[in-house]
Amino acid sequence: MDSDSQRQSLPFEPGRAKPNQAKKDRPARPAKAQPAQPSAAQTAATKSAKRSRQQAEQIPEVVSRRMIRRMLVFSGIPTATGLATFVGAYFLLTRHILEFPKALVLVSTLVCFGVGFIGLSYGVLSSSWEEETDGSLLGVSEFSLNLGRMIQAWRESRQR
Questions:
Q1: Residue 6 counted as domain residue
Q2: How many distinct structural domains can be found in the chain?
Q3: d(CA 61, CA 24)
Q4: Among 129, 78, 131, 69, which Cα is nearest to 108's?
Q5: C-alpha dihedral over 111, 114, 116, 118, to 10 degrees?
C-alpha cells in the first residue's frame, strides 16, 4: 500500500474517488422546471419602476462632485502630511542631521493618518446635500444638519 491510501484526509480536503466510480455513484438529478416567463408589459413596467427607484436613490452629480472635493481636501492633506512626515523623518535620521525618538515619528504619522481617516467622513457630511446650495467653506453648519439627518434616519430604521 502506498502512503496516500493509508493516511486519512483532512476535513477540508476533497475526497478522492476514482473518476469512473464517482460518475457511477452520483444519483441522477431531476430536470429543473422552467419558471413562467413574464409578459413584455410586465418586464417593461418592472424595469421602469426599478430605474425610477434607482434614480431617486442616486446622489446627484453636483452633490457627488462636491463631496469628492471635500473628501480630497479634508482627507488628502492630512494623509499627504503623514507621508511627508515619515519621509522627512527618515531623511533626517539617516543623514544624522537631527536626532529624535523614532516613537515620535510613529505617533505623528499615525495622528496624520487618523485625521485623514476622519476627514473622509467629515468631507461627506460637511458638504451641502442640496443641489442648489454650495455651502460654506468649512461646512460646519452643513455638518451638523447632515449629521442630524443621519441620526434621525438611523433612529427611524431602528424603530421599524
A1: no
A2: 1
A3: 59
A4: 78
A5: -130
pLDDT at 22 over 70: no
d(CA 128, CA 145): 9
Chain Cα centroid distance, residue 66: 19
Contact, 64 vs 129, CB < 8 A?
A: no
Residue 27 lies in a domain: no
Q: Residue 121 domain-assigned?
A: yes
Q: Quick check: 71 and 120 in contact, CB under 8 A?
A: yes
pLDDT at 19: 52
Is 54 domain-assigned? no
Q: State the residue range of the domain holding 95.
A: 60-159
Place of cell 455651502: 135
